[in-house]
């Protein structure tokens, strides 16, 4: 195989219509532990079950990154590999992929492998994957693909709306004081990923309509102008559609795609959460 695009399940992409015998695609699953039960994040259809068990469990829960040899197996069958991982500021997945790269290149130094720290998760990683597919199917050389992806990364972003942040707080991703306010009196947290791949809280909006309006305002503030948007939802397609309607009302030439969050993204976004990747002007 000439090319392969690999991602961990911090992305929501599971299939890609551009995949051919020359260009492969593989998702390396992260793990979610709920009490004594282990979920391998390799099936979007399991998300509803995962959320229900998480909400009903009286035991603790956690997530874990893929082992290096899982990545190594994914890298082994291609000459050129582009691998996207969850933000290194939130997960050990990036470091695990780097170790796998070293192992594979020791065995075959002629391969080209680039590990791309997305500094993000979910819908923004999906945008990067789509761009990578576009580039590699256009016969762009490996080093140019990497440089063009880095440039593209500077022109995209991620904002999100959460109705519950229990798992972010429990796993040390969010301040406990901020977390205690979410879910009270219909307050929703609006946040974004920052330049070092961690979570910044930017608004606490009371009520759904206000929260969705604030999300559109954040896209505008960050330079969005009729570009591409991917809206990922955790069991909340109706609200994802409402957000899409608001975006298209203000930006009628925008392209808005809706998909479901992966198990890992659902674990942190929790029921009702939205993750929105977007292109800047």
Q: What does this entry look like structurally?
A:
The chain is α/β, with parallel strands linked by helices and 281 residues long. It is built from ten helices and 13 strands. It is globular. The protein starts with a strand and ends with a strand.
Low-confidence stretches: none
Helix content range of the residues, please? 25-40%
How many angstroms separate the termini? 35 Å
Q: Give, in order, the helices and strands.
A: EEEEHEHEHEHHEHHEEHEHEHE
Average pLDDT for all residues: 90
Structural classification: alpha/beta
Strand order of the largest sheet: 10-9-8-13-11-12
Per DSSP E runs of 2 or more residues, the count of β-strands stands at 13
Q: Nearest-angstrom radius of gyration? A: 18 Å
Question: What is the number of helical segments per DSSP (H or I, 4+ residues)?
Answer: 10
The largest sheet is:
6 strands, mixed
Strand content is 25-35%
* Shape estimate: globular
Key phrases:
281 residues, alpha/beta, 6-stranded mixed beta sheet, 4-stranded parallel beta sheet, 10 helices, 13 strands
Give me a quick take on this structure.
The chain has 281 residues and is α/β, with parallel strands linked by helices. The protein has helices spanning 47-56, 68-75, 93-107, 123-136, 142-153, 166-170, 176-181, 208-221, 237-250, 263-269; strands at residues 3-8, 23-28, 31-34, 37-40, 61-64, 80-85, 112-117, 156-162, 187-193, 199-206, 228-233, 255-260, 274-279. It has a 6-stranded mixed sheet, with helices on both faces. Strands 2-1-6-7 form a 4-stranded parallel sheet, sandwiched between helices. Strands 4-3-5 form a 3-stranded antiparallel sheet, with helices on one face.
């Amino acid at each position: 195989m000439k090319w392969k695009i690999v991602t961990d399940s911090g992305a929501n992409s599971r299939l890609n219509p551009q995949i051919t015998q020359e260009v492969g695609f593989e998702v390396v699953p992260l793990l979610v532990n709920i009490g004594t039960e282990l979920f391998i994040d390799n099936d979007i259809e399991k998300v509803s079950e995962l959320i229900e068990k998480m909400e009903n469990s009286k035991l603790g829960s956690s997530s874990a990154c893929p082992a290096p040899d899982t990545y190594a197996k994914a890298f082994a069958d291609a000459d050129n590999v582009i691998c996207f991982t969850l933000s290194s500021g939130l997960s050990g997945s990036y470091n695990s992929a780097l170790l796998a790269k070293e192992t594979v290149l020791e065995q075959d130094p002629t391969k080209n492998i680039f590990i791309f720290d997305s500094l993000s998760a979910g819908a923004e990683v999906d945008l990067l994957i789509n761009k990578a597919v576009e580039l590699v199917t256009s016969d762009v050389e490996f080093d140019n693909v990497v440089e063009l992806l880095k440039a593209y990364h500077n022109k995209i972003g991620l904002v999100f709306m959460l109705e519950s942040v229990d798992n972010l707080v429990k796993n040390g991703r969010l301040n406990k004081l901020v977390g205690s306010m979410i879910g009270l009196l219909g307050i929703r947290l609006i946040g974004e990923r920052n330049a070092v791949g961690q979570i910044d809280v930017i608004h606490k909006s009371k009520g759904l309509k206000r929260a969705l309006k604030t999300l559109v305002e954040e896209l505008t503030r960050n330079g969005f102008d009729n570009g591409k948007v991917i809206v990922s939802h955790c069991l909340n397609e109706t609200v994802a559609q409402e957000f899409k309607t608001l975006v298209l009302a203000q930006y009628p030439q925008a392209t808005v795609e809706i998909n479901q969050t992966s198990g890992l993204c659902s674990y942190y976004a929790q029921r009702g959460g939205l993750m929105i990747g977007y292109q800047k002007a």
